Amino acid sequence: MIIHVVEAGQTLTSIANQYGVSPELIITVNELPNPDNLVVGQSLAIRIPEISHTVQEGDTLSGIAQNYGVTTTRILQNNPALAASGVLTPGNTVVIRYRDEEPIDTIVVNGYAYTFIDRNVLRKTLPFLTYLLIFSYGFTPTGELVTIDDDELIALAQEFGVAPAMVLAPMNAEGQFSSELASQLFRDDAAEDRLIENIVTTMQAKGYRAIDIDFEFILPADKEAFLSFITKMQNRLSQEGLLTFVALAPKTSGAMTGLLYEAHDYPTIGAAADYVLLMTYEWGYTYGPPMATAPINNVRRVLEYGVSVIDPNKIFMGIPNYAYDWPLPFVRNQTAAESISNQQAIERAAANNVVILFDEQAQSPNYFYTDPQGIQHVVWFDDVRSMNAKLRLMPEFGLNGGSIWQIMNFFPGLYNVLSAYFNIVKV
Hints:
The chain is an alpha/beta fold and 427 residues long. The protein has helices at residues 12-19, 23-30, 61-68, 72-78, 80-85, 119-125, 151-159, 179-186, 189-206, 223-239, 266-272, 296-309, 342-351, 384-391, 393-397, 412-421, and strands at residues 2-5, 43-46, 49-54, 93-98, 105-114, 131-139, 145-146, 163-168, 210-213, 243-248, 275-278, 315-320, 323-327, 338-340, 357-359, 364-370, 376-380, 401-405, 422-424.
């Protein structure tokens, strides 16, 4: 895959001519929101077809795959719109193989989704996933499981050969992580046992293959109790051939203090769980100062500590799929950033005729603009360059793979890198 950064004076046609591809292909591969108004500094994935197929009357996806000796999943990865529609239209071109398909590693890819995800977005994304993590089941202090309407998502995941995974989180009525709810559960052995049995029953009935324990802001005093709960869960689920994942805050040492970090003990939880998901994002966040969501230098520090105390083959690296727009000046405890998609970030840059900058230390793009009210803004987001840099950390550190938070919008920059450089495990 070639990464092209748009320069002043360049057009879609001139870029297409430079690489010997059609403008339409660049639009399709990048799902360009602004093909007639490219932004200086905007990065484009340039992918050159090596083998293509013109759809004939009577063609089927499985038949095409068999004829070319590839998997149906590979064809859907190379043609996301086909995954969304499921319709082969005679005369349309299907890319069988790109010239740049040279995998550097085989990885597991997980994606978090809420039940209200747009089904076309989900269908486009599923070919790139190993596990679909459905957010989120809850529980009561007495160990009753609070269920969600997940049947359709589970069925779609299975249709695409993706394993569904239940997410369990201690949420209060306002949808916030509750330290007290978790504490109440930990203090009642019978409630824990009841919850675990309810989870096993539900997972077996619905076809879940794994659970992700996403307990954030656990009280430091509950550190040992949290570990005990994870151990109980893993021991019980393993009897049924089910896996236990645990989401962990991004720590750079065992000495970090604070509610987010102290109960997330990397060595002990890493030993107890089947896999851990390191949440390597949210350095830039809604109420924090403007910065990259996942600066690569910070991500690297977390991974360095993680692999020093946990088997790398147990680790999934967190992958952000969102951006933030901050009004300026930033005032702590007052300024709130707007969460937007990476595609929306490009649209705003184009609408405001700005230049996209690239922070080399963070390996992340950003730009400034002034809104109609005269308020200056800064936007930090991800593009194909930043994703290429981040995803290459997985083979560098020997990780099992990555977990995307979240897949509620389709981000071509991410999925082009995944399909160009990685084989994605299907279980």
